[in-house]
Amino acid sequence: MTQETLQVGMMMYRFEKPPVIFCATQRSGSTMIYDDFLAAQRLASRESEMLHQLSKTRPSRDVLQNVIAEREQVEGLFSDKIMYHQIDAVSDMLDPGNDDRERAFHTVFQGATWVYIERIDIFSQAVSMMMAERTSLWNSWDGENVEKYNDYVPYDRVALRNYFVYFSEERQRWKNFFDRFQISPHRITYEEAVDRFENYLLPLFRECNIEKIEKAQARRINKLGNDLNVTYADALKNDLLFDLAIGNGDLWKDYTKINR
């Protein structure tokens, strides 16, 4: 497809090539993975949730089209990353008159390559979220010294339980979205990305017909998690298993209901 014109209501957005939309939950490694995607094409790091940032100022249709065109000119195609909970705000910007936010978002990007980023270890994901919020350190760029960035953060069972349920719900919402619009996304896991830095994106590049790929030298975003994260993730697992053993099954009822 050399040009794709997609119309939503009275609004028109033009893409010279099918865009690439990265769908994720927080602390799933999505910022790292998106930056790997840019770096392999010798592109500069940039804001990875551009549409969500733009939705805060509610730009006009012409401004949005200019942003799309600029990204295509600089990067070869339009790409962006979005969390499920951002869809409402982004869709309200793209198509203000459409109350079906999911459909509005899908209609704009229906010709896209959809990429779903998931962290299999939801316990570590919950710990990562707590650490990020308590320390205000969300990413570690190359050269930063973050060896003991979280030493002062105490274990918080209640907060971690809430993150556990929240991420379970977000995962299910993405699953429902893909099922609703019959999307089979390209799947990337955090665990795969961390362990296979040099080649894990090659299948995605082939799917997107991106040929000019730079051999990976070094990652620009480093893993933040340390031994304390592992300790807290193990403790969370034990706490939840203990709740189950003593019959405090409310949490597990929530989790199994979400993940049916």
What does this structure look like?
The model is unreliable at 1-11 (pLDDT under 50). This protein is α/β, with parallel strands linked by helices. The radius of gyration is 19 Å and the shape is globular. The two termini are 38 Å apart. It has helices at 30-39, 50-55, 61-75, 87-94, 101-108, 122-135, 157-180, 190-195, 202-207, 227-245, 250-258; strands spanning 4-8, 11-15, 20-24, 79-83, 113-118, 140-141, 186-189, 221-222. The chain is 48% helix and 13% strand. It has a single domain (4-258), classed as P-loop containing nucleotide triphosphate hydrolases (Rossmann fold), CATH 3.40.50. The protein has a four-stranded parallel sheet with strand order 4-3-5-7.
How would the global form be characterised?
A: globular
The amount of helix comes to 40-55%
**Straight-line N-to-C gap:** 38 Å
Main structural class? alpha/beta
CATH architecture type: 3-Layer(aba) Sandwich
Total helix count? 11
- pLDDT < 50 runs, ≥5 residues: 1-11
Domains, number: 1
Q: How many strand elements? A: 8
Q: Give the amount of beta strand, in percent.
A: 5-15%
Query: What's the quaternary structure here?
Result: single chain
| Assigned CATH class | Alpha Beta
pLDDT averaged residue by residue:
87
Main sheet? Answer: 4 strands, parallel
Order of helices and strands: EEEHHHEHHEHEHEHHEHH
